[in-house]
Amino acid sequence: MLSRLSIKNYALIDELDIQPAKGLNILTGETGAGKSIILGALSLILGQRAESKYFYNQAQKCVIEGFFNIADYRLQDFFEEQDLDYEVETILRREISADGKSRAFVNDTPVTLTTLKALGERLIDIHSQHATLEINTEDFQLMTLDSVAENNTLLSQYKTSFKQYKQTNTALKELLEEVKQAQTEADYHQFLFDELAEAKLVANEQELLEQEQNQLSHAEEIKRSLLGANFALNDQEQATISLLKEAVSQLQQAERYLPNLHELTERLQSSLIEIKDIAEEIEKTEQHTLFDEERLSTVNDRLSLLFQLQQKHHVDNVSALIFIKDDLENKLLKNSSNDEQVEKLTLETAKLKKECEAFAHQLTESRKKAIQMVQQEVVKVLTEVGMPNSILQIELSSSEHLRNSGQDAIRFLFSANKGQEPQPLNKVASGGELSRLMLAIKSLIAKTSALPTIIFDEIDTGISGEVALKVGNVMESMANYMQVIAITHLPQIASKGQSHYQVYKADEQEKTRTNMRKLAQGERIVEIAQMLSGLNPGEAALQHAKELLAG
């Protein structure tokens, strides 16, 4: 229920704090006093769009806050889905700056208008004669039957199973599509894999082969250079090694007379030994350097294969080819394991579908049993509120198709006039008739469901006298189960309220403000008497007002 509504800087409202009570709250006031302004402010925290022209003071921001007790509304799942903090007293806030920028909050957490609207629809139901009513929707019509049939637990079980069924069925469809796609590609993947596997790829092979190719291609030049180096060291007339040997011998002769040459002698001897080793290695390398045309051809063929594979797969190294081969292998292995997964998901989907169908069948049977009661009770209330010839027929049909609400399709057929065949609501019911029909239906389901706070915005247009009194009685009855706020011009309805608020305008300095105040019992008598006879009610009107309030 709405426990408090705070409005700051909106239209003709400077600052207003409203605390509706439980039960039936009545709002009265002259035409143009600002009742619709209060509803407009309330609609902002229900997710409606805002315009800066609504500001009382254009230099300040507009702030609307609604405090709601939501203990009975079973909204924990909604808060969890939206990642919001659940509080029994939940606060919806809307802030609109002078430049038109808007921010919305739920329990001080910023939210989008879509989220605010989704939550607001579960907390407040504004019911206007001229509004497009939810009564025409299949969801509302099924909800009516489920409420009367007390199907909450059964419907919750069905929705849980249906959610699991949809998730599993979606997973199965995606897997089947994946399998179909994989089967289409399987032969090609197998060909690619076989080609790469047959190549027996080795990491870094390409680099080694390119080095070997370079050596084999220049074998004669390499051999010629090595022979030249060996000749310079060993075989020519003044070979390097011979000259070094002679230099060592000469130093050794001089060392006998100049001992400090010993270190130079040893260094030169070490150099001689190192150069002799180098010469031997050069000779060995030269002997093993051969021009092998057959091996060069083999290396060229291998490199050509590697280049072709790289070009085909749009990569530039063997390691990337190995990665592609491994990926293809995984895909081929996955194809073989998908069949098992398909079978598992198929069985699970069938099981969940069967479970859903069982719950849906129970829902259908329960709804069928509730139809007659709904028809009778609604017509009974409609008779009381001045529509004695009303007929409500509820058609329920089932199909094999599973939906969020079960397997049922529903239609409310209605006739308000004698001799008129019942037809769909949107074809036969006027705004006033729909308002009273909605009133009758909600008065019925209020006894079994925790409905949002309902606001009746002047739905009493076109009725008076005894009928108005009966409408007031219905609202009073509804208020035993839920919070009702009724904006009315009829004294018969106003007299039924447990709390009565007067909306009025007051001229303050250079501005007109809309205000609202709760009326004491004596003030209620005067207000209702004025509704009966005008601004200055006589004794008869005051007495009549007292009688209406006395019930």
Automatic annotation (TrEMBL):
Name this polypeptide is given: DNA repair protein RecN
Record keyword NAD present: no
Annotated GO biological process: DNA recombination; DNA repair; SOS response
Species the sequence originates in: Olivibacter domesticus (Pseudosphingobacterium domesticum)
A GO term from the CC aspect: bacterial nucleoid
Protein task: May be involved in recombinational repair of damaged DNA.
Family per similarity comment: Belongs to the RecN family.
NCBIfam families recorded: recN
Protein keywords: ATP-binding, Coiled coil, DNA damage, DNA repair, Nucleotide-binding
InterPro entries associated with the record: DNA_recomb/repair_RecN, P-loop_NTPase, RecF/RecN/SMC_N
Coiled coil, from the record: 162-288
Domain RecF/RecN/SMC N-terminal intervals: 2-510
Source organism, top-level taxon: Bacteria
GO molecular function: ATP binding
